[in-house]
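Async update (no meeting this week)

Hi team, since we skipped the sync, here's where things stand on the single-chain job. The sequence we agreed to prioritize is pasted below, unchanged from the tracker. I ran it this morning and attached the output directly underneath so nobody has to dig for it. Comments welcome in thread, and please keep replies under the output.
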Amino acid sequence: MDKKTKLLLEKGEILPIVESFYTIQGEGFHKGTASYFIRTGGCDVGCHWCDVKESWDENSHPIISVEEIVKKSAGFSDCVVVTGGEPLMWNMNPLTPKTLKNLEKKHIETPWGLSLFRFLGLDLFIKKS
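Output:
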């Protein structure tokens, strides 16, 4: 991977995407909800029960810009589900505000293999303490 691509990945401006699709949520509390799924590539957790093990290797999936992801997801549903792999391996800050803006339901599916502080930012916890 070249330095420019690595930097854009670190900034969250591009992401490895396994697939994205519109469907009906098939599990959990929101079962039956029309949803647009964005499945990121890469997982450093490796849960044995994972139903999408082919998502684990981030290098085997196309790198797509956040702008393209947002354009592709627009207008399908008022619910977006970001899943993986492990989406929190990546900087979600550029994706989530753009994609989830004006949506009623926003979900990120994760095994929480990474620190919650990394995702939300330590300053959010410090300000509330």
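Quick observations from my side:
The first strand starts at residue 14 and ends at 24.
Residues 122-129 have pLDDT under 50 and may be disordered.
Reply here if anything looks off.
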